[in-house]
What does this fold into?
Amino acid sequence: MVEPGGGIDLPRSRWGASSCEGATPGATRFRLVPCLLLVGSLLGAAPAAGQDEGTTTTSPVPGAPTGETAPANIATILPGGVASVPPGAPYAVARAIGAANRIHTRPYIWGGGHRRWKSRGYDCSGAVSYVLHAAGLLSSPLVSGQLAVWGTLGFGTWITVYANRVHTYMVIAGLRFDTSPRGEWIDQGRGPRWRYALRKPTGFAIRHYPGL
It folds into this structure.
């Protein structure tokens, strides 16, 4: 099930950040009641998209020796956790991979990446926004609900963004870049990381930038 791009924006913090899968958006008391009311309203309206167990699917470890040449538009995860840039990748894709590599070890921070592009840590939409901005595809940070209507509906050849009201992640050149470790068999923790498992897109709007 794919949302047709009609995502609902979450209430923003003062930096415009959205909630993320498994996030704990601060312990300040004035946020607690609105957050509980929001969670209740979301649960009452529909199950949280993409939250059920079994929504992940694994793929061969990117970069692992297989005896075969990888397709030209597929990146691999290199030692140290950074991703390679496939030969012939468009400039925007190379920029996107380079940006993801720069923040791939940063911690998860709710609201990170929304007040300024360079941040000590990032949340889900902050990380995706950072990468899209570096690729020249986004001018200002968006929350996950806004990313659900970004670009054009459908899968991209190189870059695909998956977003709903509570979470967003992206796949670049065949690799998943996600702050959530859901479905991972390698414990990399939370925060922007190249993940070794792909996720089923159930409950996510699937968006891409025209031409990419």
